[in-house]
Amino acid sequence: MNKQTDPLSWIQNWFYNNCNGDWEHNQNIIIENLDNPGWSLTIKLEGTLLEKKPFKTVDIEKDKNNWHYCRVHQGKFEGAGGPLNLGDLLAIFKQWAESCESKINSN
Question: Is 61 exposed, middle or buried (0-12, 13-18, 19+ CB in 10 A)?
């Protein structure tokens, strides 16, 4: 995938590339708003190349409205962030997925 692609276009392609007639029938990508305010991003990894890949937790807090936290827990990528950080959550997932893909392709 093109590393220059914006995170929204990239996640759409990632979703499409993981559709296999079964995987897409579940709510595998969930974007919700938080009441603090902010965003929540959950991506189920089961059935994808990322399912068992290590992820280093990201925890950045610049101020009460500019923060993001991402981890992989129980087979899911989970991200939360401030009201203007949804793009950051998608970008962190994109960067991780692309780094895992490049390691797979180099083997």
Answer: exposed
